[in-house]
Amino acid sequence: DNLASDLRASTMTEVSMGKRIMPGRPPDKGSFPIDHFSECAHLKAEYLRCLAANNHDNMSCRYLSKQYLVCRMDKNLMREEPMSALGFTDADNEHRAARKKNRDKTKEQKGWVVGVDGIQPDRESNWRRPTLINVARLFG
Hints:
The chain has 5 helices and 2 strands, in the order αββαααα. By secondary structure, it is mostly helical. The protein has a domain at 35-98. It has a two-stranded antiparallel ribbon. It is found in: Cytoplasm. One of its GO terms (cellular component) is mitochondrial intermembrane space.
């Protein structure tokens, strides 16, 4: 019985100098060796150029990030996984046009000028000084 408990304990942890050491665990998903020999650096550089050319819209350059991950898997720099598990689809095989950003114009783009458009001269006449006593009610 004592031998069985020692075997269970040794499979879960190792003992070193009287202290238990927890067993190592594999790295988290997404952490993988650095490409020290720049085997896939040309794809990374092409991806960065694509981002700059497409106003940093990553959807238009997804095909390059897919090629980069395939290169890393082929060079054994990361574990082989299906592309669908990494968030890619079959439509991510070619370049897409950059998405248009439908933003409303800012007030400056519409012609608003600081110091000119902010002044409202009629506001001063409508302003009343706060008082504790309502004078109009006392005498009116």
